[in-house]
Design a protein that fits this description.
It contains 6 helices and 2 strands, in the order ααααββαα. The protein has 152 residues and is mainly alpha-helical. A two-stranded antiparallel ribbon has the order 1-2.
Length: 152
């Protein structure tokens, strides 16, 4: 668990990304061609919970002495964070939504003409990826924290 140059980007980007990704997932996908229905409305409440959850690993990295001193995160945490972020983007492009008039097209349905079933399957994969990557980022943040607290 060493620190590389990519960690500097993640160290600073993890804060705005934790705010941006839920906004994109629930509302911002409408700017790239997806229809926004009930999920956009419910995203106001759920988005706050998601932001709070996404801020837990970055807060934990602040308690890692080595990370704070270097102002760069560890490589394993960087990889988990990148996968998490990509999972959120893919999820935002494929999440199924519905309005009063029925199902709405996702961004990938609009762009490539894919079926709703394919988009839903891609969303299921991205949702699993989000959960696994979040757990990995949380685990790596805790591992780095405990490693930096050990006596030399």
């Amino acid at each position: 668990m060493h620190i590389e140059g990519s960690g500097r980007f993640v160290f600073y980007a993890q804060w705005p990304v934790a705010l941006f990704l839920p906004v994109f997932f629930f509302i911002g996908r409408g700017f790239v061609g997806a229809g926004i229905g009930r999920l956009g409305f419910l995203g106001i409440a759920y988005g706050l919970i998601v932001v709070a959850l996404l801020l837990v690993p970055p807060v934990l990295t602040l308690f890692d002495r080595e990370v704070r001193r270097a102002r760069a995160t560890r490589v394993a945490y960087d990889i988990a964070s990148a996968v998490l972020w990509l999972g959120f983007v893919l999820g935002g492009l494929t999440v199924p939504d519905a309005g009063d008039s029925g199902p709405l097209d996702t961004a990938l349905m609009t762009w490539f003409g894919m079926t709703a079933e394919t988009s839903a399957a891609m969303f299921a994969v991205s949702a699993g990826l989000i959960v696994l990557a979040y757990l990995a980022a949380l685990t790596f943040a805790i591992m780095g924290l405990t490693r930096s607290r050990r006596r030399p």
